[in-house]
Ribosome biogenesis GTPase YqeH
Amino acid sequence: MDRVTEARQCAGCGVPLQSEDKQKIGYVPTSTMEKENPICQRCFKIKHYNEVAQVAMDDEDFIRILNGIAGTKALVVNVVDIFDFNGSWLKGLHRFVGNNPVLLVGNKLDLLPKAINPNRLVNWMKYQSKQLGLRPVDVVLCSASKGMGMERFIQALGEHRNRQDVYVVGATNVGKSTLINRILKEYGESEVELTTSRFPGTTLDMIEIPIDKQTSLYDTPGIINRDQIVHMVTAEDLKLISPEKTVNPKIFQLNDQQTLFLGGMARIDFVKGDRQSFVVYASNRITIHRTKLEKAEELYTSHVGTDLLSPPTGENVKMLPPMRKRSFKIESGSKKDIVISGLGWITVGGAGALVDVYAPDGVSVTIREALI
């Protein structure tokens, strides 16, 4: 593939370039504007300093950019973060898809424990998609950052795009641009890299990458799911809660009236039930602490933001909304995941349990059939 960049379009995030206002998106110094494949100041800071500047682009701006897909004839590649499947799911995806086929891609496979069965995972994703109202034509697993599953992904693209355009869609931070960069690196000849980072909302406009003379692949802006905890934390704490390596499940044998803290981000109270295992799947950098339920409130008040209950770290505690309680009843003989959007999940099951979960107000907390 060859990458053709508009003269005044950022080669990294796709936003129109301008040299008039440093505070607005797309700013570049005048001297940079005439360079081949220029990138905006925001992309430059992400690439070279791992910094990101906030930009004035709201949800309606993103949705307006994507609204045209339903009127086209194309293959829609919907990328989800396997580790945060529910949190990265695009609500109302049918509005953007129309009658176009959808290829569902589960990215970040490298974060899941290696013992997981890929075939079972694919079937689980098909089932979950159906429950959420989508019937993809195919499901592919991959890790764009590690190059895992790319041959299968390219094969699926060829099978399902029918010589039509391809639109890559997904929530923020699922790895769309990393996936496209991997395609360009392994199967194309592009000299331009799309800007990628752990920070949500990196791609700011539609980026067109020609496939051949008639068709193109489009990288689209990530839709922001506001109920993910990643949008409530500082960049410093985001590094701690976003896994970058294979997650090591942590198993706790709990009696009722015991509590688990996932740092100071979430609290899980085992209110009632027989002794059983609670398996935590979260970033290896999150401190997990067990205590008695009767001491949980005092412990949180006294130690949130310290080494005992972090992240959040230090003064970042003030960034989080107040904790809100959700209650779940898990029947005996069933195995369920309690999912905290953007943070991870806790697998509970076998003996039946009544569980209360506390997470910042606005963060989605749901229950599903166990993934593992």
